[in-house]
Amino acid sequence: MGIKFRWVLLGLIAQSLIVAGEFFKPFNVSYDGRAMIIDGKRRMLISGGIHYPRATPEMWPDLISKSKEGGVDVIETYAFWNGHEPVRGQYNFEGRYDIVKFVKEVGSAGLYLFLRIGPYACAEWNFGGFPVWLRDIPGIEFRTDNKPFKEEMQRFVKMIVDLMREESLFSWQGGPIIMLQIENEYGNVESSFGSKGKEYMRWAAKMAVGLGAGVPWVMCKQVDAPEYIIDTCNAYYCDGYKPNSKRKPKVWTENWDGWYTSWGARLPHRPAEDIAFAVARFFQREGSFLNYYMFFGGTNFARTAGGPNYITSYDYDAPIDEYGLLRQPKWGHLKDLHAAIKLCEPALIAVRSPQYIKLGPKQEAHVYRDNGSKCAAFLANIDEHSSATVKFRNQAYTLPPWSVSILPDCRNTAFNTAKIGAQTSIKTVGFDAASYLNDPAHLRLMAPYEVSYISESWKFVKEPIGVWSDSNFTYQGILEHLNVTKDQTDYLWYTTRIYISDEDISFWAENQVSPALTIDSMRDLVYIFVNGQFTGSAKGKWIKVVQPVHLIQGYNDIMLLSQTVGLQNYGAFLEKDGAGFRGQIKLTGCKDGDLNITELVWTYQVGLKGEFLKIYATDDNESTEWTEFPPDAAATRFSWYKTYFDAPGGLDPVSLDLRSMGKGQVWVNGHHIGRYWTLKSPKEGCKTCDYRGTYDSDKCVTNCGEPTQSWYHIPRSWLKPSDNLLVLFEETEKNPFEISVNSYFTETICAEVSENHYPPLRAWSHPKASNGTISLNNMAPEMHLQCDAGSTITSINFASYGTPQGSCQNFSRGNCHSPNSLSVVSQACMGRQSCSISVSNTVFGGDPCHRVVKTLSVEMRCSPTSSISAH
Ligand SMILES: *[C@@H]1O[C@H](CO)[C@@H](O)[C@H](O)[C@H]1NC(C)=O
Ligand SMILES: *[C@@H]1O[C@H](CO)[C@@H](O)[C@H](O)[C@H]1NC(C)=O
Ligand SMILES: *[C@@H]1O[C@H](CO)[C@@H](O)[C@H](O)[C@H]1NC(C)=O
Ligand SMILES: *[C@@H]1O[C@H](CO)[C@@H](O)[C@H](O)[C@H]1NC(C)=O
Ligand SMILES: *[C@@H]1O[C@H](CO)[C@@H](O)[C@H](O)[C@H]1NC(C)=O
Ligand SMILES: *[C@@H]1O[C@H](CO)[C@@H](O)[C@H](O)[C@H]1NC(C)=O
Ligand SMILES: *[C@@H]1O[C@H](CO)[C@@H](O)[C@H](O)[C@H]1NC(C)=O
Ligand SMILES: *[C@@H]1O[C@H](CO)[C@@H](O)[C@H](O)[C@H]1NC(C)=O
């Protein structure tokens, strides 16, 4: 039976119980070898990851409610130590870091919470979530049997557990928290620490459970987790996973439904059919708790992106996109899947292990059947090329390749992972007002979505090259970057002066060679200046740099701007990684061989002057002398630009288009949006994506030859209707005139459903369906279409019931077409935010062509409901 947790109720806690609202009737959480046990009942649980600091508190309720609507029972998040304790002993639980508020929002929505305290998060988050000050604790070694580290870790984990308890957020207090995680994927690095690794792991487990949280703890990717902690799986597929004890349920803590990306890389996408396949296979093979990593990815605001070189967007190709809009068909397909799994839940929890039936060489069924009437079956075809028709309980089922059919009554198919009924949504950034007005369907509307080209009035101020303040200091030799910056900034200037003799100059002239500045090893980015002139740059992770330089006779100033672009977040020995330069810096190709400049006296300057002056802040600092930047001005490297702009009208999310820029950072109304970079991805590698077969992050990529990130999310809550301050620091010679601020919204929606698609899932809740009085097989499938909140369907671009061809944005009529197609669809949908159409001959006034499977394909346009405009 399940493991019981003990805890101590402090008087203090009993008191706060009265103050805090209860979200649930208090309940206990335990588990057995089949499932989590919530309030005495086994549950099949779907969890969705949302990292609270990757969105604003204003966005949280909507994200949580969209997750719930998508069939999620649990919200998962890490706790972000470096966000909560930026300076040792100084805490931040405000704004995006208000974890208590976030957990309460989850509880208010009636969802559970899975909190992964870590405190190592990885998460493509700066330094994996560790505060950078942790490196400076004498004798510290991260994530191993090391006293200083264990003390700090315990202090943070205990603080979070205590905070949650004080706020009555654990299940037994009526709060939403049902499960906790200690450490994170430690099994990946444990062996790097030898026997101390195992010792640390055991210590961490014991320490966590000793904190009296009263809910189960998990360790992911930890096959040697102790008996009292559930070891869990993180991967693209976890159906084959087996926890290390029969007394633990099969839990999938990270189902990677997309992937992250780096500056200069392509954008990964995981097909909805394959995610659904992986999830269905998991529940088919005794899985019981599944978490999507991520359900909403969000944004790495400010300098929170990890490294090396992760982009500001953390969209992750998640079911809810970076801006908080539904990603379709992914969200809708998973919603249908979750509903189908929920229909199976009574049978799944009634049976400890399913009956296995081999249906064919690559086809199999798992049947969950109790002694009574409960029965659910999963039929899988793991053949990645061909579909298969299998016989199950005397009935034939056709299974597309690489798919699972879910039969909640062991007879009717409620869902097949490869058959998408959900709509496709095509989003748009900005708005082409001209084409909008030329479209007669829109003439009666005003155009609230206009491309909001920012005013041409820009001001600028130059950032000095090299040392700019009294805070500079000198040191003989090269200091490690992070030891100097403490990660208060990305930027660190290293400057020195070298003497070049007449002989060297003539040697170079006679041999027609030039000397080169050579850096043995460097990360993440360096700009090289000689005598105030920009000479070159290099980017990479611990790469060698050889930069030819032009030197003059006499003294030459060498200035290196070393930059971090997200600190390392993965791997063992993070505290030793560091940044900047390693090895020696030399001038090669001199007359007398290499000139070793490592041990010269170097002058150091931390950060940029503009950062120090906070010239991005809204309260204007008189010490900054902004000057007009007229349209004919030539842009110079390292400039700060500012302007004011009006927010786009309406309520849609807002996006900043920085395609015309180079690299830098951007702030709006003093809020740090993040780093930007227009580094382009390789031209090749993007090809048509086939959902069939094992997925990996290189399989289905898009955006080849384009900047990895062009658009940057500005949360609505950071904007006023007008006079918003935009400040950029630009590191290259790009001018800001083409920057624009735009609405981001779903403009086109499409769907395709054929008459032999499975019946609507809600039909299953019909009382007569459960005992077979009405046949689900005879119920017509339905098509559902929905615009974003605040938008309605304003035109039908295409509608055909028959044998239409093509796909969204490229549909065409086939040989068979019902003449009523447009009028039926129009009647059902025009002017509505959402609509449903039954896909059957009856609805379309008769069969347009006998003995042919008919399909309904539609394409519609969404426009704002009212002509709201802030202008
Ligand atoms: C939870 O379990 C504890 C210990 O077994 C018990 O005292 C308590 O009443 C239970 N609470 C609920 C809400 O069932
Ligand atoms: C099913 O019935 C058998 C025999 O009647 C019994 O031994 C078993 O415990 C029952 N199983 C369940 C899950 O009720
Ligand atoms: C660098 O620091 C020194 C000593 O604090 C100071 O005298 C000098 O002016 C500084 N350099 C600049 C460019 O501010
Ligand atoms: C960084 O500073 C610490 C002392 O704070 C020192 O032990 C360490 O060696 C330094 N790292 C490098 C790479 O210089
Ligand atoms: C350059 O100087 C460094 C520091 O003194 C020293 O360790 C290294 O051996 C020197 N390299 C060469 C090639 O002389
Ligand atoms: C203004 O400039 C001073 C230094 O001159 C600086 O201390 C301060 O932080 C700056 N920024 C703001 C927003 O006051
Ligand atoms: C099925 O259930 C419905 C409603 O609960 C009931 O009216 C009907 O008699 C049942 N039919 C059978 C065959 O049990
Ligand atoms: C549009 O669909 C037709 C088939 O109906 C296909 O031949 C054509 O390649 C498609 N075009 C695009 C751009 O997808």
TrEMBL record:
Span of domain SUEL-type lectin: 777-863
GO MF assignments: beta-galactosidase activity; carbohydrate binding
Catalytic reactions of this protein: Hydrolysis of terminal non-reducing beta-D-galactose residues in beta-D-galactosides
Localization: Secreted, Extracellular space, Apoplast
An annotated GO BP: carbohydrate metabolic process
PANTHER family: BETA-GALACTOSIDASE RELATED (PTHR23421)
Name of the featured protein: Beta-galactosidase
